Amino acid sequence: MSEIRLLEQVSSFLTRNNGHYINGRAVNGSGSERFPVVNPSSGEVIAEVNEGTAEEVNAAMDAARAAFTGSWAQTSPMERGNCLNRLAELLQQHREELAQLESLCSGKIIQLSRLFELDQSSHFMRYFAGWASKISGETMSLSLPSMQGEKYTAFTRREPVGVVVGIVPWNFSIMIAVWKMAAALACGCTIVLKPSEFTPLTLLRVAELAKEAGIPDGVINVVNGSGRTLGPLLIGHPHCAKVSFTGSVPTGIAVGKEAMADNLKRVTLELGGKNGAAFLADVTPDAMVNGILEAGYMNQGQICAAAERFYLPKSHIDEVLQKLAQRLSQLHIGASLDESTEFGPLANRAHYEKILALFDKARQEGNEIVYGGNALQGPGFFVEPTIIRAKSAQDLLMREETFGPVCTFLAYEEEEELIAMMNDSPYGLAASLWTNDLSKALRMVDRIESGTLWINMHNFLDPALPFGGIKASGIGREFGSAFIEHYTELKSVMVRY
Ligand code: NAD
Questions:
Q1: Cβ(395) to ligand 1 under 6 A?
Q2: From 116, 244, 304, mutation site for ligand 1 pocket: most ligand atoms within 8 A of C-beta
Q3: DSSP states of 178-238 as a string?
Q4: Distance from the alpha carbon of residue 146 to the mean position of ligand 1, in angstroms
Q5: Which residues are identified as catalytic?
Q6: Residue 360: partners with Cβ closer than 8 Å, 6 or more residues away
């Protein structure tokens, strides 16, 4: 047990009268309602945050619109990139403060908060900063012949869509918001972020750092409160030009419908899934166990791209599950701020209760619980990392996203059968294929239905590589150059001379 001491800045931040961040300053909020922030490691309330109302939504959207047509439009692309680079630097300078705050609110173990929420976020921010000065259209010769000797020339421009509403989930509350804000700002858009009601604090601090980085007031705003109430107000606001949503499939569908119904507002949806991982028979059992740990259990399985359905060769499955159970039994489970913790709590009570109900359903369906399947004693929202052996591909746990440390396994005999099983899902966010036979793997690439396919790896995101789902896992792509299409409109300009 080596629980770290909270930094003074973190303790004092928790006691502030936190609410929202609008037009370059922290705002307490006009309504009287406050909602609690709970530490998932202890179940204790650590702070309260003001519940936003239409007043905060209107103020944030007005500020974002004014900055879009004013200060941010007048900021050169090079300077926009410089602003993002300075913010990346400030995230590094405040790494420990933000990591502690994040771990306290989300239950993410402190090492993951440092590495992903801060270090990775800075890398992503710098990647997008580079794009700010490289967003351009094309010039083209027109195709039809001239009628009377007149000439034509034409060009396209990539113009920022306007004010973006960024709706963020609780599992990577800084990093996912950074993806949205950096992409929006690089393209010349401004943004109003709505964090999850479970993790409302860290973005308030990031927005303060953005001001310190020289990003003008109104370019980044944060409104806190219930998604059900604030979501429709933000999406339906006349200044909202685009919604960038990351979250669950049912909420994503509701958001998409709302955006479409409100004059076809642009929308990207990064949603959940039921990601598959397929291990071919040439992989050793020990390598399979390492791969499963990487794919399924990091951050207690609360990663949108994590694998939840695993397909193992019939000849290997007994040995692999036995070795996996052994490894899981050695994990150090503990509080998120304990440096020695390898496996922390689930992020909130509602999610904890959902996972416990899924354990019950697995038992009712007659699945074999090879390891785990129980809540852990004590305060906080802890469950055991769990191995379930399915009876068939139709079992609930082979089909429904748990978003927890619950990996479900099925044996296969033929590789053709394996591909059919991998594709037998309404979702398609990410998948992985594990084999030493690269030629065989490459032949399978175009047969697996998934937005991302990893070979001999899982859960790695790189800012240069587009990321997003097919089928019910979403619409649109983040990263690479693909993001530009989603934050700009293409204008065609034609000239006769
Ligand atoms: P969620 O859908 O419950 O909530 C996401 C956000 O939407 C929150 O900020 C919430 O307040 C808001 N919201 C809720 N109702 C809304 C409404 N009616 N209108 C507008 N906004 C509303 O998801 P969650 O539980 O926070 O996150 C877990 C889910 O997110 C999982 O399904 C996971 O797979 C998915 N996820 C996907 C990605 C990805 O990139 N594809 C990344 C992380 C998480």
A1: no
A2: 304
A3: HHHHHHHHHTT-EEEEE--TTS-SHHHHHHHHHHHTTPPTTSEEE--S-HHHHHHHHHTST
A4: 53
A5: 270, 304
A6: none
Phi, psi (rounded to 5 degrees) for 11 = -60, -45
Strand partners, 356: none
Q: For the chain, what are the domain ranges?
A: 8-272+474-496, 275-462
Question: Is the minimum distance from the CB of 175 to ligand 1 under 6 angstroms?
Answer: no
Q: Is the CB of 454 under 6 A from ligand 1?
A: no
- Which residue's CA lies nearest to atom 17 of ligand 1? 228
Distances (CA, A) of 417 to 278, 411, 424, 443: 11, 10, 11, 15
Q: What is the CATH number of domain 275-462?
A: 3.40.309.10
Q: What pairing do the DSSP bridges indicate for beta strands 474-475 and 266-270?
A: antiparallel
Atom of ligand 1 at shortest range from CA of 232:
19
pLDDT value at residue 378: 79
Residues in the chain: 497
Give me the mean pLDDT over the 395-411 stretch: 97
Of 3.30.200.20, 3.30.450.20, 3.40.605.10, 3.40.50.11540, which CATH number belongs to 8-272+474-496?
3.40.605.10
Does position 297 have pLDDT exceeding 80, yes or no? yes
Burial of 111 (0-12, 13-18, 19+ CB in 10 A): middle
51 lines ligand 1 (CB under 6 A): no
What is the whole-number distance in angstroms between the Cα of residue 402 and the centre of ligand 1?
14
Mutate to test the pocket of ligand 1, among 242, 245, 246, 406 (most ligand atoms within 8 A of CB): 246
Q: How confident is the model at residue 389 (pLDDT cuts 50, 70, 90)?
A: very high
- Quick one: tokens of 200? 């409302």
Burial of 388-416, coded b for 16+ CB within 10 Å and e otherwise, reads: bbbeebebebbbebbbbbbbbbbebeebe
Specify the residue with its C-alpha closest to ligand 1, atom 9. 196
pTM score, two decimals?
Answer: 0.97
DSSP tag of 154:
E
Pairing assessment for the beta strands 386-389 and 368-371 based on DSSP bridges:
antiparallel
